[in-house]
Amino acid sequence: MEQKLFTKNDNGFICANCGFEVLPLGYTSRNHCPKCLCSLHVDINPGDRACECRGVMHPIKALPDPKKGYIILHKCSKCGEVHRNKAAHEAKVQPDDINYIIELTSREI
């Protein structure tokens, strides 16, 4: 039997980095703050909440993607793991800060 690699987990949360109250997206898993773009290292596979690290993941780079808009690279401040996450800059509820995303495209990593 094939294991599912994506679990929808669209819950609101309080950002561990800036304290912003993040609302659910309503259509997919919200995994980072739309204000500071930080996340928590809680997933092994998207939405599973199976990772025990729990470190704050800071955005280090944004990559334009012709099909997905922007991909944000997050690096865990605790273990150093890097994850790719689709930006939600076109969301109807609390869209990601597009100016910050654009700024991240010019960062060197």
Features:
109 residues, mainly beta, two-stranded antiparallel ribbon, 6 strands, 7% helix
Counting DSSP E segments of at least 2 residues, the number of strands comes to: 6
Shape call = globular
Distance from N terminus to C terminus (CA atoms, Å) equals 38 Å
The topology string of helices and strands comes to EEEEEEH
Averaging pLDDT over every residue, what do you get? Answer: 91
Proportion in helices: under 10%
How would a textbook summarize the main sheet? 4 strands, antiparallel
Q: Order of strands side by side in the largest beta sheet?
A: 3-4-5-6
Layout of strands and helices, then pairs:
Layout: E1 13-14, E2 21-22, E3 39-40, E4 56-65, E5 69-76, E6 82-86, H1 98-105
Antiparallel strand pairs: 1-2, 3-4, 4-5, 5-6
